[in-house]
Amino acid sequence: MNDSNETIEEFLAEHTSDVEEAIRKAAAAEILPRWRRLAAHEVDQKSGPHDLVTDADRKAELYLTEALVALLPGSVVVGEEAVHANPASYGAIRDDAPVWIVDPVDGTRQFVRGEAGFCTLVALAHRGTLLASWTYAPADDRLAFAQRGKGARLDGERLFAGVPEPGRDLRVATSHPDYTTDEQKDALLGLRADGVAPRPCGSAGLEYLAIARGELDAVAFSWEAAWDHAAGLLLVEEAGGAHLTLAGDPFRIQGGNTLPFTAARDAATARRVVGLLSGGA
Question: Can you tell me the distance from the alpha carbon of 148 to that of 171, in angstroms, rounded to the nearest whole number?
Fold first, then answer.
């Protein structure tokens, strides 16, 4: 294919519904049949007890990898489970080919517990720029879609993040302590301030969706894995929100960010959260 973003925009104009169908079919074939029916041998640990993988993760990612590359020949997939097997494959995010960034089951711990708080995340990027994203919550059959410059929608309804309610505590979802360094823990302590109500995050993808819907004011995360953030960051941007790293720069999916970072309902809230993470007021 031609490697210009214009050509990818033409692809999206014609095939967005095909991508959505592939995501729904992957969930119907590989994820939902295993929800609340997982056998012990279908669940493994990766880096530790809070980093789980299931047969649903593996098989759904394989399904999506085949389907998405078939839809956009010349594209590549960076998926959480494939990168776990071959870390070098993560580098495709920085290459010239269009890249699908896939988290087949975001919120695997919730999925294993039989809870509804999990989703499938797919984003399409080119040369570090996020162009489109899909956030699908199979248990509730909700699908959010965002396209750069064209807004964000949930089940067809336009999303507007809005601004936090004046006088109300700022609602912020934060990284699980197991995924933070001592330095990052110190930064996150800045959120224990008057006027802020921090809580541990669940599925990152669903937290981003909550920001885009105006149900959550911000997140403060301390890890970079693109499959957790790519879809949600574009969703928040296109709903009117913003994201900033501790250095005050937008988050880069290629990596090299100063952590923690935030995504928020509006730019002023993003700056406020970064100020708190930096030890400011």
Answer: 26
